[in-house]
Write a structure and sequence with these properties.
The complex is a heterodimer of chains A (454) and B (301).
Chain A: H1 7-10, H2 21-52, E1 66-70, H3 75-92, E2 96-100, H4 103-108, H5 110-115, E3 121-125, H6 128-135, H7 143-149, H8 155-160, E4 171-175, E5 178-183, H9 184-190, H10 198-210, E6 214-217, H11 225-247, H12 256-268, H13 281-289, E7 293-299, H14 313-317, E8 318-321, E9 334-336, E10 339-344, H15 351-361, H16 364-373, H17 391-402, E11 405-407, H18 410-413, H19 416-432, H20 437-452
Parallel strand pairs in A: 1-2, 1-3, 6-7, 9-11
Antiparallel strand pairs in A: 3-10, 4-10, 5-7, 5-8
Chain B: H1 3-7, H2 10-16, H3 20-51, E1 54-55, E2 63-64, H4 68-76, H5 80-110, H6 116-128, H7 131-142, H8 148-153, H9 166-191, H10 195-203, H11 208-219, H12 221-237, H13 240-246, H14 255-263, H15 270-300
Antiparallel strand pairs in B: 1-2
Helix pairs in contact in B: 3-15, 5-9, 5-12, 6-9, 7-9, 7-13, 9-12, 10-11, 12-15, 14-15
The chains are: A alpha/beta (454), B mainly alpha (301).
Chain lengths: 454, 301
């Protein structure tokens, strides 16, 4: 189709000057070449610029205004964070703006966020996932902050805040335990007692079954929920050290200790709520709330579903026990208790203000604001006035305090690509067909080798 | 052939009619869209092809690893083959069930029924909703413990969690939307059919079915091509519903979701995800090339 121009529209009179054929042909060719080449180059340049990371940006120790990046998009914790920041502004006279982003979005965009123009201080998770960004030079060293707040925390929290180079990059602000939740009234009515060994738990589950209850509530639609069950079984059976090495890619998945975890899980599956792969955790929590399920292994955020039910009485009826002992060698010495907190961007120009804010976040008064607002959380800081704690928070604090080892949850203790693209489908495949343990483990091991090679 | 003719070929004469202004306008009107297409379509596509031969997490330097990603996808990545199969099933259900159903609705509603506009509205309504919203609505319908179907029927079917039936359940939702879309396309087409040819067919003694298939349907050819293209696109880009329901795991794997799960988010297996994207691109190119080939062959004739 040769485009025909209306001379009246083109605005110029028809030119009597003939146009050479050769020139006509050469113009588009050269333009295309320039265009293609230039585009290719710019794409490459953009890619390599991304690959370079943010290490080139110079940081400064200024004390000007800063921003805090928060993933607490729900109303209650959002208001709590704002209150903490307001208290800091009042005490220090510094300017701090809060940028709140939806929780999942924040998590999914963390890579590009940190390499772009991140907030000076931002929410993140302790442990492996903190170390990953610290190793890439995307997080700022805040060891000087820890010199001041170190006395406020137990050694395990400092350990979880320390990068591979021995410097601190993280201030813990809250955590919550994963445990077996139940309703006290259900246990009282039926004369159940809290199991302390796996055999007792199975016996209890048998009893619940004959009483018409679902012994263990279960949901794994999101794919991450079952990670909690895997974590606790592996830590109970093989211990915390093996668990850590396994998730760091240093142990094979096709070994007897790992098979034992899945065999034990397969033994427990008949007592789990059926159809877990089509159910989200809120629905499973409703089963516990409605006294259809006897117990439910989940993080303490399960209490959100109880907070407003039955005029607040349901929350008081909620209790938990730590997953019972399986292997006497390890007892109940480990627990999943993911720690949330704050880090400083390596690019900040105002590290002075940022560090002052981080120091404030590590104080009892700041953390109390947070745990007062969200009853599903506990504060890691020592010396806090815990009179505002619910019985549940009090117990969580004690149970985690007693644990010798604190794990951060599977998707925080290993490479994120391994957790999301390998473990989620694999655990779901096991739950679907518990007889396929060998092939599931072979799949995990093959993919683990490929991913950890990089 | 006279010499004057060769000295002034017709092509030169035609080009001479373009003034400087014409040429500028031509350059702008062709150049800008070309730049946009190159920059927004082919640039990223080529970048994906390049990245598919690398290992990159978005932070550390890019590492070239040849065909390793492709080799791992087809050998040790369990969700890949189910995803490919589900995409084919998705396309087949839309093309063989939903599309004919849309055509049927269009034909029925094209007759002067009472309240035909009401019915058209009812069937078209899902098309206005985003697929993400459709996914959410059907989640409420299918939920095992609190869903509409199980509550009303008293059944306890795990509609979305059982990998043997959840693809079917989701396809009902996807088809629910697709049928309305196709219906509207065909309704528009049917409105353009000259009623006199139907009358002529009836005078010749054709019954309703014969009239439709032998007289009306062939005149809908341009619409058929549009519908075919729309259906293939919907089949290949399917994503929103399954992502809303369970992020495309456990029986609802689709290539588009595997790409997202690998690239977006913290996983950042950008090279690996790009390799899946390239596979999807090659499949799409297969449809595009056969479509273009068909079209140009007809034009040439």
């Amino acid at each position: 189709m040769a485009p025909r121009f209306d001379p009246r529209m083109s605005g110029a009179p028809l030119s009597p000057r003939p146009l050479g054929l050769g020139r006509h042909a050469s113009v588009p060719v050269s333009r295309r070449a320039v265009l293609g080449g230039g585009l290719g180059l710019s794409v490459m340049a953009a890619l390599s610029a991304c690959g370079g990371g943010g290490s080139g940006a110079a940081a400064g120790d200024g004390t000007g205004a800063i921003t805090l990046g928060s993933n607490q998009s729900d109303a209650v914790p959002k208001a709590a964070y704002q209150k903490i920041v307001d208290a800091f502004i009042e005490a220090s006279g510094s300017e701090v703006g809060v940028n709140t982003v939806d929780h999942n979005t924040f998590q999914e965009q963390i890579n590009s966020y940190l390499q772009g123009d991140p907030d000076d201080v931002f929410t993140w998770f302790a442990g492996y996932r903190m170390r990953f960004f610290a190793d890439q030079g995307l997080a700022g060293d805040i060891s000087s902050v820890w010199e001041n707040i170190g006395g406020n925390f137990n050694e395990s929290f400092k350990e979880a805040s320390t990068g591979s180079d021995g410097k601190q990059y993280f201030v813990p602000v809250s955590y919550y335990p994963w445990a077996v939740f139940y309703r006290k009234s259900v246990f009282e009515e039926n004369g159940y007692s809290v199991p302390t060994t796996l055999d007792e738990y199975i016996e209890l589950a048998e009893g619940m079954k004959s009483d018409g209850l679902t012994p263990i509530g279960f949901a794994d639609k999101g794919g991450w929920e079952a990670m909690g069950t895997f974590d606790i079984l592996n830590m109970r059976i093989n211990g915390y050290d093996f668990h850590t090495r396994l998730l760091a890619g240093e142990e094979s998945w096709e070994t007897d200790p790992v098979k034992e975890v899945f065999n034990t899980w397969a033994r427990l599956l008949p007592y789990h709520q059926e159809g877990a792969l089509g159910r989200d955790w809120q629905e499973a929590a409703q089963g516990l709330l409605q006294k259809k399920s006897g117990t439910y292994l989940l993080g303490m955020f399960v209490s959100q579903q109880f907070q407003d039910a039955e005029g607040g009485e349901a929350l008081e009826d909620l209790d938990f026990f730590t997953f019972p002992e399986v292997n006497p060698e390890h007892g109940t010495d480990s627990i999943d208790a993911p720690i949330d907190g704050f880090m400083m961007s390596a690019q900040t120009q105002n590290a002075g203000t940022a560090k002052a804010l981080l120091e404030f976040l590590g104080t009892p008064e700041a953390q109390k604001v947070n745990t007062d607002a969200d009853k599903g959380l506990v504060a890691p800081v020592n010396g806090m006035d815990t009179s505002g704690y619910t019985a549940l928070q009090q117990k969580a604090s004690e149970v985690v305090g007693e644990a010798a080892h604190i794990a951060q949850f599977l998707d925080r203790d290993t490479r994120p690509d391994f957790a999301s693209t390998v473990m989620i489908p694999s655990l779901q495949a096991f739950i679907r067909e518990p007889g396929n343990i060998d092939s599931v483990l072979a799949d995990i091991e093959a993919q683990k080798k490929a991913i950890f090679a990089g | 052939m006279s010499q004057t003719n060769t000295a002034r070929p017709p092509a030169t004469r035609r080009i001479r009619r373009h003034s400087t202004g014409d040429r500028v306008a031509l350059a702008v009107m062709l150049g800008v869209p070309t730049l946009v297409v190159m920059g927004l379509v082919w640039g990223p596509a080529m970048a994906s092809v390049f990245l598919s031969f690398t290992r990159w997490n978005g932070v550390t330097p890019i590492e070239f690893i040849g065909l390793q990603n492709y080799q791992q996808i087809v050998t040790i990545y369990p969700p890949f083959w189910p995803a490919l199969r589900n995409n084919v099933i998705w396309l087949a259900v839309l093309a063989l069930i939903a599309t004919p159903l849309g055509l049927l609705l269009a034909v029925v509603l094209d007759k002067q029924l009472r309240a035909t506009r009401f019915y058209q509205g009812v069937f078209y309504l899902p098309v206005v909703l985003s697929l993400a919203l459709v996914g959410f609505i059907w989640t409420l319908i299918y939920s095992q413990d609190q869903g509409l179907i199980n509550q009303l029927s008293g059944a306890n079917v795990n509609w979305l969690g059982d990998p043997d039936i959840n693809l079917g359940a989701v396809l009902v939702a996807a088809a629910w939307r697709h049928v309305g879309y196709i219906m509207v396309l065909y309704l528009a087409g049917l409105k353009g059919v000259d009623p006199s040819i139907k009358e002529a067919a009836q005078i010749d003694g054709a019954n309703q079915v014969q009239t439709f298939f032998q007289v009306v349907f062939p005149t809908l050819k341009p619409i058929n091509i549009v519908v075919l293209v729309v259906t293939v696109i919907e089949g290949l880009r399917a994503f929103d519903i399954v992502y809303i329901i369970n992020k495309g795991t456990n029986g609802l794997e689709l290539l588009s979701v595997l790409i997202t799960n690998n690239i977006i988010g913290e996983a950042s297996r950008i090279g690996f995800g790009s390799a899946i994207a390239v596979i999807l691109l090659v499949i799409s190119l297969g449809f595009i090339i056969s479509y273009l080939w068909q079209t140009f062959r007809k034009d040439a004739r």
